[in-house]
Write a structure and sequence with these properties.
The longest helix is centred in the middle third of the chain and has 17 residues. The protein has a domain of about 210 residues: Rossmann fold (3-Layer(aba) Sandwich), CATH 3.40.50. It is α/β, with parallel strands linked by helices. It contains 10 helices and 10 strands. The strands form 2 sheets. A 6-stranded mixed beta sheet has the order 6-7-8-3-9-10, with helices on both faces. Helix 1 packs across helix 6 and helix 4 crosses helix 5. This is ABC transporter ATP-binding protein. It comes from Pseudoclavibacter endophyticus. GO terms for molecular function: ATP binding; ATP hydrolysis activity.
Length: about 325
């Protein structure tokens, strides 16, 4: 198996000089998102207000179905907000906004294209020809895949494919990089290597990063701040000493998910998983997502929020 590379300091410096900015300021103003016809719509997000600073790495966590991916799509202009607005550097986000780029859990590479030409699909129109080829070559080097430039996706591993996906997203030099569970399909060891690679890439290309994850530990390792997304009903259940939502009076809870809490991680990276601050925040975040009872009972709570919608028994 090919491991994710460590980017040399000299290369990091060169790549940093290749950028004129350190990411965009992302602001969400009372953002809401609903689906369906008027009068029968389903509210997924409501009243989301936040500011993400240039070059910041923000993790978005929450239970399955809590609207995390919907929020990411709204941030990238892939879906219009029903209410409110999203801006980058004070300018409203447009459909498929060129200032942002998205990488998904699946690499979504075109199987008939080489790795180099898959990455080239992310280039802006103005960066074709010699400039485009040089940029693709630099990105292949950055993610440690120069020798695989002419390979097809079927000839590489899942971790390598995800590195190509990241390189393609970076090809346009976005101000904002949006990642939707980018490492969720990878094995544990490859995932850890990808964490290191993402931080190296962020040093080389210091854009603003927002990533969705089910893994609390992943959020604590990578992020500057963690946004917890959920509904009032879910938050009420999480605080309910083991009672399910059906046993509680949540009639006053509003429909749709919002930001339940924001945690800032002051500890510098790389972070120790055994530090008191790491363990404290991990416990609090899992508790906020309704899995604290398992941990308190002495059972391994894990770091994932995949089952956070299941009532504690």
């Amino acid at each position: 198996m090919t491991t994710a590379p460590t980017v040399p300091d000299a290369q990091l410096a060169g790549a940093s000089q290749d950028r004129s900015a350190s990411g965009g300021v992302v602001e969400l103003h009372s953002v809401g998102k609903s689906f369906g016809e008027a009068g029968r719509e389903r509210v997924v997000l409501r009243d989301v207000d936040a500011r993400i600073e240039p070059g910041e790495i923000v993790a978005v966590i929450g239970a399955s179905g809590s609207g995390k991916s919907t929020l990411l799509r709204v941030l990238g202009g892939l879906s219009d907000p029903t209410t409110g607005r999203v801006t980058i550097d004070g300018t409203p986000v447009q459909p498929y906004d060129p200032r942002s780029a998205v990488a998904f859990q699946e690499a979504r590479l075109l199987p008939w294209r080489s790795l180099a030409t898959n990455i080239a699909l992310g280039l802006p129109r103005r960066a074709r020809g010699v400039e485009g080829r040089e940029r693709v070559a630099r990105l292949l080097e950055l993610v440690g895949l120069s020798e695989f430039a002419e390979h097809r996706p079927r000839e590489i591993s899942g971790g390598m494919a995800q590195r190509v996906s990241l390189a393609r997203a970076l090809a346009r030099r976005p101000d904002v990089l949006l990642l939707d569970e980018p490492f969720g399909a990878l094995d544990a060891l490859t995932r850890l290597r990808m964490h290191d690679l993402l931080l190296d890439i962020h040093t080389a290309n210091p854009c603003t990063v927002v990533f969705v994850t089910h893994d609390v530990d992943e959020a604590l390792i990578l992020a500057d701040r963690i946004f917890v997304v959920g509904t009032e009903a879910a938050a009420s259940t999480a605080d309910g000493a083991g009672r399910s939502a059906d046993d509680r009076d949540i009639a006053g809870a509003r429909e749709g998910a919002t930001l339940l809490r924001i945690d800032e991680l002051a500890e510098p990276r790389p972070r120790s998983r055994s530090s008191k601050e790491f363990l404290r925040l991990r416990h609090e975040l899992l508790a906020a997502l309704g899995v604290h009872l398992h941990a308190e009972a002495g059972e391994p709570a894990g770091g994932s929020t995949e089952d956070a919608t299941t009532p504690a028994r």
